[in-house]
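Appendix B. Worked example

We walk through a single record from start to finish. Start with the input: the chain for VANG1 protein, Pardalotus punctatus, length 525.
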Amino acid sequence: MSAAMDTESTYSGYSHYSGHSKKAHRQGRDRHKSPRSKDGSRSEKSVTIQTPPAEPLLGNDASRAEEGQDDNWGETTTAITGTSEHSISQEDIARISKDLEDSVGLDCKRYLGLTVAAVLGLLVFLTPIAFILLPQILWRDDLEPCGTVCEGLFISVAFKLLILLIGTWALFFRQPKADLPRVFVFRALLLVLIFLFVFSYWLFYGVRILDSKDTNYQGIVQYAVSLVDALLFIHYLAIVLLELRQLQPMFTVKVVRSTDGESRYYSLGHLSIQRAALVVLENYYRDFTVYNPALLTASKSRAAKHMAGLKVYNVDGPGNNAAGQSRAMIAAAARRRDSSHNELYYEEADHERRVKKRRARLVVAVEEAFTHIKRLQAEEQQKAPGEMMDPREAAQAIFPSMARALQKYLRTTRQQQYHSMESILQHLSFCITNNMTPKAFLERYLNPGPTLQYDRDRWFSKQWTLVSEEAVTSGLQDGIVFVLKCLDFSLVVNVKKIPFIKLSEEFIDPKSHKFVLRLQSETSV
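Next comes the structure step. The output line below is what the pipeline stores for this chain.
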């Protein structure tokens, strides 16, 4: 209300201005508009899109509400703007449409593979049952009586099929983690092997049993049992090829992020290139710090500032080409290189000083805010003199005392785009609920965490493109390099084979550990 009264008083003060002051204000505004016309090229390259509430373009309603909030949530403000903060170029729009088309193709391919696998699995489990039931249905009166051994085989088939069903569910019916560009070779080979195996069994069954109407029912049941045994061995082969083969480390990969050079090392087994890329991405979201493009603008702005300070005079007339000017600017920038390191040193030192100062203010503000909260015990809740609050209300009560210090620190470290006010309140209420200390609350903000720590709407990498000179279905080899690209950066992966290590043994006799103390006459001893 006070802010509104100040605004009204300001507007009433503006009404007492004279006509001359209004004219001067209009002229000054026209002068301020003139530099904006020079940036016409920038307005042609990008377009600002504000998504309507009914059709979200870049996220869901909750994420759009968080992203639409102003960065000045730690201060009181009376200005409400409707400008969207998403600036998308025409190339990005074309890329989004292409990604949508590719996603439709990937979904069709994924569902087609799942359908084929489900149909084949159903055929596998129904085949042994059909082998046993068809003679009972077609020529029941001509069959020989089933003895005790034959009836015991029924129990064997039932339990083996149950074991095979559980093993197949555990190995194959898992939610896919990613859409790979090519099929998994070993999985496809297993499907082909199972199909050929079941087809050959049906072919033999049709020729030797159905056509001749074999009356030996015990032999028919044993034939079905042999099929189930063979399927169990194929399931064991699938476990070896799909799970056990890749466990032994054979290669070491170095993953480097192209923008800031952050790198990690991982050990991998016998994997194809596309599956190795999947393992690298899973570890990337866990081990690499979140990608922050705001940290990369300092060097670019510094270089632009140095180049802006150079002036080139055309002494030969207007006919001189631009190549000579560019060479002159490069030469002048090279001459100023000796003094640029001093500017970089003092700039980084000043930035570190401001970060340490605002960090200390933030730590003190959070510790003081946490001192106002006391967790009531069960017997104290009935006689508590003050008002009792739930964790959400307690977080909202103490948040204003630390908001300004937290906002300044996040701005200084360029992390404000990853933390909205709602996410901070949720984290604060979580810390209060679990009786965590102020240091535990600040851990998320003092040190940049991995990508998984933040909301999916804050990620800069969701869809990746695998670039490789070798076929993505081929196995890893020594010296292979492949690249994982996303919208803003890429991961360069270099594969090195673990060297063969030869160990030798040397035996040391325990009796050889004997020593003699030698004393000289010149010593003080």
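Two observations about the output. The beta strands are 46-48, 87-89, 251-257, 263-268, 465-468, 481-485, 490-497. Confidence is low (pLDDT under 50) at residues 1-91.
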